[in-house]
Specification:
CATH superfamily of the largest domain: Ribonuclease H-like superfamily/Ribonuclease H
Number of domains: 3
Strand content: 5-15%
Distance between the termini: 47 Å
CATH class of the largest domain: Alpha Beta
CATH architecture of the largest domain: 2-Layer Sandwich
Strand order of the largest sheet: 1-4-3-2-5-6
Low-confidence stretches: none
Oligomer: single chain
Order of helices and strands: EHEEEHEHEHHHHHHHHHHHHHHHEEE
Number of strands: 9
Length: about 400
């Protein structure tokens, strides 16, 4: 394939026409995220079966034709670990991708590897070696060298063939619907990012009271607004640990706020009045508007149950050749334990009881929690040495055909 860098609007529009006619395209981006609120798009890479091309967004300013294609659903867009590519579509098109396949996710449904690097995936599926990522490249600098462009395009030139082979394997194993459901879930979770309570993930937030959480939430919301207004990463606006400190101290005046350790930076001092306003707003909230404290006296029990379930899940995933990391996390296992054992219906039906995950492990895990399963060692040399057997209520057991 000829390597091309497109810097002209007309050539870009012609590329979009070609992609539309091809009906499928591999897509990747290069970006920088260190200095801006959202990652800054520095290069777009495309490959069809006939050609590959990179597009310079600093020269081609109008990218609407591509974002309309990606969101429109008439072109199958193939990515690898396409989190940022989906985010760019959501931001730039104002819509979700219409038809997207992620080969990293698909590989996790065919093997026990997730996430798997592009280099490893190309080697495994196609038996080819790649040069790897230009991890230290400043993609904002111009001009781009021929070597940089070649490396960037290599990230898309094998994707369509990998996707074709994975599609055949998924169909042969009856997992095509699994992949489609997982692609949709992946996009949906990224769509929901702006509504998430990201302040709950602050280091140290788990130990805060409801009133302190209200203060942390207000300061985080102020920080998000400032980051967007100033186009800076939020952690460069105000540090995480200082949010927790102010939530605990709850300063009542500017002198008290500025007496907090490490508040002597000039930009923090300038932000002092706004920070104090955020604290004051939080403290004025009625109790019923404070965030819920998500702690339980059953935490230790949940952890023990999750560890038990993780053994069953790991064994089942090894048996079915599907990635444990893709099927479920420790948080998913704890949610299932709360739902099944303690009757806690907060958060809805556990993810492990929905869709293809229920098919993989739902019945096994709920039977483990209900005491309907006996565990023994089968073949210790196997990569899934455990055998889970159904108990008949008399102390006898019979092999569980699925495990």
């Amino acid at each position: 394939m000829p390597h091309r860098l497109i810097t002209d609007q007309d050539r870009f529009e012609e590329l979009c026409d070609h992609i539309r006619q091809a009906g499928e395209v591999a897509f990747d981006t290069e970006f920088l995220s260190e200095h801006t609120y959202r990652p800054e798009l520095c290069l777009l890479q495309f490959a069809t079966r006939d050609r590959s091309a990179a597009v310079d967004p600093f020269q081609v300013r109008d990218l609407k034709s591509w974002w309309a294609l990606m969101a429109g659903g008439e072109v199958n867009v193939v990515v690898h670990g396409g989190r940022e590519e989906v985010r760019f579509c959501l931001w730039c098109a104002g819509a979700r991708p219409g038809k997207l396949c992620d080969v990293q996710i698909a590989e996790g449904l065919l093997t026990r590897s997730f996430p798997v690097s592009y280099t490893s995936l190309v080697q495994r599926v196609l038996g080819l070696r790649t040069h790897g990522k230009e991890t230290r490249t400043d993609w904002k600098l111009r001009p781009l060298t021929d070597r940089q462009i070649a490396y960037a395009l290599e990230d898309v030139e094998h994707l369509l063939e990998i996707h074709a082979r994975q599609s055949g394997a998924l169909a042969a194993r009856g997992r095509t619907s699994w992949a489609q459901a997982e692609f949709e879930r992946f996009i949906g979770e990224l769509e929901q990012e702006p509504a998430r309570e990201t302040w709950r993930k602050l280091p140290g937030a788990q130990g805060l009271s409801a009133r302190e959480l209200a203060v942390a939430r207000e300061i985080c919301q102020w920080r998000e607004r400032e980051g967007l207004r100033r186009d800076k990463p939020v952690r460069r606006i105000f540090r995480d640990d200082l949010i927790i400190e102010l939530a605990r101290r709850q300063p009542r005046d500017l002198d008290d706020l500025l007496a907090t350790r490490d508040m002597n930076r000039s930009d923090y001092r300038r932000a002092g009045p706004e920070l104090l306003e955020a604290v004051t707003r939080a403290l004025a909230l009625p109790r019923d508007q404070w965030p819920e404290v998500k702690r339980s006296d059953k935490d230790q029990d949940e952890q023990i149950l999750a560890q038990l379930l993780s053994m069953a899940l790991a064994n089942r995933c090894a048996q079915l050749e599907v990635s444990l990391g893709l099927v479920g996390t420790t948080a998913d296992l704890r949610h299932l334990a709360r739902w099944k054992v303690y009757g806690d219906k907060n958060g809805g039906t556990p993810r492990l009881m929905q869709g293809w995950r229920a098919e993989v492990c739902g019945e096994l895990l709920t039977d483990v929690l209900a005491g309907k399963i006996a565990l023994r060692i089968g073949d210790p040399r196997s990569d899934h040495p455990l055998v889970f057997e159904q108990c008949d209520g008399t102390g006898k057991s019979s092999p569980d055909g699925g495990a």
